[in-house]
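tool=predict chain=A
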Amino acid sequence: PTEVSEKVLKAFKETFKDAKDVVWFEEGDKSYRASFMKDEIKIRVRYDEEGNLLSTIRYYGEQTLPFHIQMKLKKKFADKGVFGVTEMSSDEMVEYHITLQDEKRWYTVKSDANGNFEVTEKFKKA
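tool=predict ok
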């Protein structure tokens, strides 16, 4: 088990009161990472040793995306279904990596907070 500093634990408990199944890891750069569930969403967070939140990654379905991004996604990729979303955020940015699928292919689409899309990967289904 990782020994987590009191500052980090205090900051985590204040921010994520209802976290379940919390597992801590110590990173090589003197930061700590916690993986846990909150409101049926898988979340990973990173803190520095002073308890400052550095970044978050959340994994969820289409319904949790901001509404304006959902609408733009449905319009631009009307023939594809959403398989899952990875939301990455820090002080500098928020990005959504959205996995789409149709009958023949998988697609990864990157979106910024405004709903500007870029297809970053395409794979044929086996």
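The first strand starts at residue 20 and ends at 26. The mean pLDDT is 95.
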